[in-house]
Amino acid sequence: MEAVIRPCAAADCGEVMRLIRELAEFEKLPDQVQTSDQALREDGFASNPFYRCLVVEVPPECRSREGHTIVGYALYFFTYSTWKGRNLYLEDLYVMPEFRGKGFGKKLLGKTAEIGLENGCTQLKFAVLDWNRAAIDFYQGRGAVDLTAAEGWHCFRFEGEALERLAWGQPGP
Amino acid sequence: MEAVIRPCAAADCGEVMRLIRELAEFEKLPDQVQTSDQALREDGFASNPFYRCLVVEVPPECRSREGHTIVGYALYFFTYSTWKGRNLYLEDLYVMPEFRGKGFGKKLLGKTAEIGLENGCTQLKFAVLDWNRAAIDFYQGRGAVDLTAAEGWHCFRFEGEALERLAWGQPGP
Fold first, then answer.
1. Rounded Cα gap, residues A78 and B30, in angstroms
2. Of A114, A123, A129, the CB nearest to B167
3. Which of A94, B73, B141, B154 has a C-alpha 20 to 30 A away from that of A167?
């Protein structure tokens, strides 16, 4: 199947939002999605964007059962390691189930890696849920290292009231 | 002790590099440090910086045994969650051992959280080594959630040859 990997345009944000919701359902955490296509447009298409995104587009004759031609995406941003310098972080990589097995995920990942290297990044980081065996096999088969298992890194987060207490100076009991 | 929390200036990069090395030694991974103060200057002080940094500066009369007045730092950058929108990621938070117990870490963390909220971020994320009990207690005591323990997120990384193979199209055997 002919498909194009291209940068997401502002006009694609509605389609990307649809895919973001599909991925969150697959990850069994659909209630956590609080973004909107409007927020995606504002945050990704300003002069200093918070993220960048690639999409997979298939020709109209190959569209999905429900009529979609944008069938996958990779959302990433530049980060920094005080040990290794410039990094790229892959927030999401997703291909619709009916378009899997065609190499689209591999192409999205490859293009993301290429953009990283072209921009002087030495690492591509991401997070995977420990029960998502298919994803772990996909990444480890290509040489990714599980830093949680290998070195003991745990992901942490402040949000909501805890974040406000940190900022406005009532740091708990 | 009077101390100032202020944005890192390009001229401070040598001092921040010294603290980065101290932290890597504490984390028992000193060989991983491949950055330099020159790279820090280039990557943090361009029009589209890869990171931002706060430092703790004490007055000359309170300087360290070896004569340093910059005694801690917090290095962070803006990231993006497709579920929650704008995020802030805290790459490093460090205070020199002889200046601990004075609230400097708490102030660095508070100022970072404040910058995040002012910029519309809803989350502050970071990673901690599982054996670093003091850090985990410090963060969890303020309401941080361990996402690896709670939801099963593992940190992964591609680098070196694996990253090049992804990008230039020889995806393994």
1. 24
2. A114
3. B154
Output the pTM of the full model.
0.93
Q: Is the CB of B167 less than 8 angstroms away from the CB of A79?
A: no
Q: What is the pLDDT along chain A (173 residues), one digit of tens a residue?
A: 789 999 999 999 999 999 999 999 988 888 889 999 999 999 999 888 999 999 999 999 999 999 999 999 999 999 999 999 999 999 999 999 999 999 999 999 999 999 999 999 999 999 999 999 999 999 999 999 999 999 999 999 999 999 999 999 764 44
Residues of B within 8 A of A168 (CB-CB) are 114
Beta carbons of B31 and A151 less than 8 angstroms apart: no
Domains, chain A: 4-126 (3.40.630.30)
The interface predicted TM-score of the complex, written ipTM, equals 0.92
DSSP assigned state of B21: H
Residues of A in contact with B29 (CB under 8 A): 83, 151
